[in-house]
Amino acid sequence: MEANVRKMTALYMFVSGIAILLMMVFGLLMLLAQGKMIPLGQDTFYEMMTAHGTFMVGAAAFAASAVMWYFLRQYVRLSFPIFVTHFVLFLTGAVMTAISIFVFRFAGAWTFLYPLPAMSAGMWGKTGASLYLIGMLLIGVSFLLLYLDTSRAIIREYGSLGHGLGWPQILGKVKGYGPPPTVVASTMVSIVNLVSLTVGASVLVMSLINLFQPSIEMDPLLAKNLIYAFGHIFANSVIYMGVIAVYEILPKYTNRPWKSYKIFLIAWNMSTLFTIIVYPHHLLMDFVMPKWMLIIGQVFSYLNGLPVLVVTAFGALMIVYRSGIEWDMASSFIFLSMFGWVAGVIPAIADATIVINHVMHNTKWVPGHFHMYMGVGAVSMLFGFMYYFIRGNERKIGYADMVSFWVYTVFFLSLCGTFLFSGKVSAPRRWAVHFPEWVPYDRMGAVFAVVIIAAVTVFLYRFFVSVIIVQAKQNIEVGPRA
Questions:
Q1: Is the alpha carbon torsion for 422, 423, 426, 427 positive or negative?
Q2: What is the per-residue pLDDT across 251-265, written as a single tens digit (0 to 9) for each?
Q3: Which residues, 6 or more positions from 345, have their beta carbon under 8 angstroms from its beta carbon?
Q4: Which residues have a Cβ under 8 Å from the Cβ of 58 and sit 6 or more positions away?
Q5: Closest listed residue to residue 21, CA positions, set 45, 56, 48
Q6: In whole angstroms, what is the distance from residue 12 CA to residue 20 CA?
Q7: Count of alpha carbons within 13 Å of 327, Cβ hemisphere only?
């Protein structure tokens, strides 16, 4: 069984890694087009933008769900068939979504804002829109099954999801530490994503109905609220799943346990609530939104990321301090991810301030914050897990790996800097064509992106080759006995 788990986990990371690398290439092509370095039709640009936004977050979430499942199974009894079903359904939905974009030319972005799927001004037809919506629905169902299983397993082991979040310890009914951090984080992710995916499925189904029966309409503002509630919660859950790698890997490197003390539990409970209700900060420019919702969006944006971020970042510093930790690729990536998370939150909080949001939100400032949050934060957690997964299975990590790590770090931060500075000079996001004064920043970003892609190729090559070598050794060992 353990061998099957490792094979399936490696397959998750393999597929996700390839998808992330390919989406980075798409990002490079978009920067080259905006920088007027290659000719790229506007239709093609928006198709790539749709794929980049959809599959980058989707692939990162897919990999992060495997990280969560891999470590959570140490504490609760999870269903391996559900893990396999999640894989199959996700790939099926992803293939349908890719066909909708690159065969039937759907280019409505990951937001698929109603009534855009049904009103494309001739850019795509019903087939492309329906394939995209159904593909996204299948992907959502695959995640929904996984979170239902994790919720079931946590309830079976701890009695309730509240116990999984440490309510007895918070309320003083039980003394001592709460459940392991992995269980706490998995409980939080399961709760928020059950909400997120249910909301997302609702608006996808309603959009499909409207696509084939236009007389059945829904309120566009309601649809936008549902879409951004789904998108914000789901995208944020990537780092909340990925941080489980921090909680599991750093203690092994430092020989120091990571305990669920009361403040830690309170922080995760706060983020469980805040993550669900904070999404209106994406709608601060929609003047028709109720004012009280916009205030919630601003205030809770300040509060949402801080509790878990602070206790995790502080905990990471404390667990490493004077521990004699071995700094290899896994531990380096895990520690880098903490910096990426902290740094990425700063421009996000600035953008969530209403007076700043009115000026900055539709500029490249937002991709700057999100790329730092995801690329240096969440994706670094995934790379750290990959190197941890193959640790001890192959020869010592070489010089090329560490050089690639520092190249990735420096050039990814530089890429984020070009996005943030582009936002500062009012370069809009989602524009296929840029004015001449914005072009230099696009070209600098493209150069940084080329180097980043080269570094990621090294990481993935190391992972793939190591997994293949280990599998070959196991086959040789098992062969004679068979």
A1: positive
A2: 999 999 999 999 999
A3: 305, 306, 309, 373
A4: 19, 90, 94, 139
A5: 56
A6: 12
A7: 10
CA torsion angle for 235, 367, 12, 138 (degrees, to 10)? 50
In what helix (H) or strand (E) does residue 212 lie, and over which residues does it extend? Answer: helix 181-212
How far apart are the C-alpha atoms of 365 and 427, rounded to whole Å? 9
Task: Quote the tokens at residue 110.
Answer: 């990951």
Residues 442, 31: Cα–Cα separation, whole Å: 5
Residue that the structure tokens 């790229």 belong to: 40
Q: First vs last Cα of the chain: how many Å apart?
A: 17
Contact by Cβ (8 Å): 444, 418:
yes
Q: What is the pLDDT of residues 338-363, one digit of tens each?
A: 999 888 888 888 888 888 888 888 99
Angle at 344 between CA 325 and CA 61, to 5 degrees: 80
Q: Which amino acid is at 322?
A: R
Rounded to two decimals, what is the model's pTM? 0.93
pLDDT digits over 184-208, tens only?
999 999 999 999 999 999 999 999 9
User: Beta-carbon neighbour count of residue 477 at 10 Å?
Assistant: 9
DSSP-assigned letter for residue 416: H
DSSP3 helix / strand / coil % (the chain, rounded to 5) = 80, 0, 20
> What distance in Å separates the CA atoms of residue 445 and residue 414, rounded to the nearest whole number?
8
C-alpha 454/C-alpha 434 separation (Å) is: 26
Q: pLDDT tens digit string along 5-42? A: 999 999 999 999 999 999 999 999 999 999 999 998 89
| CB of 331 closer than 8 Å to CB of 380 | no
Q: What is the per-residue DSSP string for 358-382?
A: HHHTTBTHHHHHHHIIIIIIIHHHH
**Closest listed residue to residue 53, CA positions, set 311, 246, 227:** 227
The pLDDT confidence band at residue 472, using thresholds 50, 70 and 90, is low
Residue with tokens 């690329």: 375
Report the distance separating Cα 379 and Cα 235, nearest Å.
Answer: 12
- Residue 97 belongs to what H/E stretch? helix 80-102
Rg (CA), the chain: 22
